[in-house]
TrEMBL record:
The keyword Protein biosynthesis does not apply. PROSITE patterns: HTH_MERR_2. Keywords: DNA-binding, Repressor, Transcription, Transcription regulation. The keyword Acyltransferase does not apply. InterPro entries: DNA-bd_dom_put_sf, MerR-type_HTH_dom, MerR_fam. It comes from Metabacillus sediminilitoris. This is MerR family transcriptional regulator. It comes from the Bacteria. GO terms for molecular function: DNA binding; DNA-binding transcription factor activity. Pfam families: MerR_1.
Length: 111
């Protein structure tokens, strides 16, 4: 994602301590979810983690699922499936738009 395309929710500017306060998760839990590849904080040149509001929403969702007994491997699998679906939908929209443009301007027909 291009940094200029990010919304305020996607900007990685929040410290791990603030994330812990906002979510009620311990620092250890947050780091564990990072180890399990459930979240990906930005790390600056000194290695300091920075999170976004989107990361916080993801952490809250993870915490809710963990309370319901869902394992982290299952959460990760679900997250990957959702991401694949989003990518497929984006690709379909792109192909549909290209088809509409081709039809509108009679492109791709040997003209």
């Amino acid at each position: 994602m291009n940094p200029q395309d990010r919304t305020y929710k996607d900007k990685k500017v929040i410290s791990i301590g603030t994330v812990s306060e906002l979510t009620g998760l311990t620092l250890r839990q947050i780091r564990y979810y990072e180890e399990r590849k459930l979240i990906s904080p930005y790390r600056n040149e000194r290695g300091t983690r920075k999170y976004s509001f989107t990361d916080i929403e993801t952490l809250m969702d993870i915490a809710d699922k963990r309370e319901d007994g869902v394992q982290t491997t299952e959460i990760l699998r679900e997250m990957r499936l959702k991401e694949k679906k989003r990518e497929s939908e984006k690709d379909l929209k792109k192909r549909m738009l290209q088809g509409q443009l081709n039809a509108q301007f009679k492109l791709g027909r040997g003209n």
